Amino acid sequence: MADELQKHLEKGQYGAPKLNPDEQRRYLGTFRERCYISMTVSQMQDSRNQTLLEKHLADHSDSSLLINGQLPESLQSRYIALSVQAKKKFTIVAGDTSKESDPIGLLVVSPQAVNEEVIDIEKKFNHKEVPFKSTGKKKSFW
User: How far is 37 from 59, CA to CA, in rounded Å?
Assistant: First the structure.
């Protein structure tokens, strides 16, 4: 009985215990296993990465965006407009990411675990995606 009372008092004093609080802090309140794409703040400022995100946002129909609330408003508004254009839900997360040198600024997440091996946008999608070039000549069937 005393053990249950102690747990109840600790829960009231410190809040409910969280699973992997450091991971949730890093990934804007969600778990790494739910992420499709991640962008750091410096990656968000690169227009090539914004183009890549626009191009691949439709790849995941059940996804939504988490945007870091500590970003400058101009950067936030750019990606909010992008999510509205793609008809994706977005949430601005006010988390403490001041301890990190280059914190995550945006995540494309799923409501359940997807376990993507690579989520960093620059590693997942190469900047130099080369379009298919046709030589104009068709090979003979024979």
Answer: 11
Is pTM beyond 0.85? Reply is no
Locate 73 and state its tokens: 């408003």
If we measure between CA atoms, which residue out of 60, 46, 58, 34 comes closest to residue 105?
46
Per-residue pLDDT of the chain (142 residues; tens, 9 = 90+): 678 888 878 878 877 777 777 788 888 889 899 999 999 999 999 989 999 999 999 888 889 999 999 999 999 999 999 999 999 999 999 866 667 778 899 999 999 999 889 999 999 887 555 344 444 455 555 5
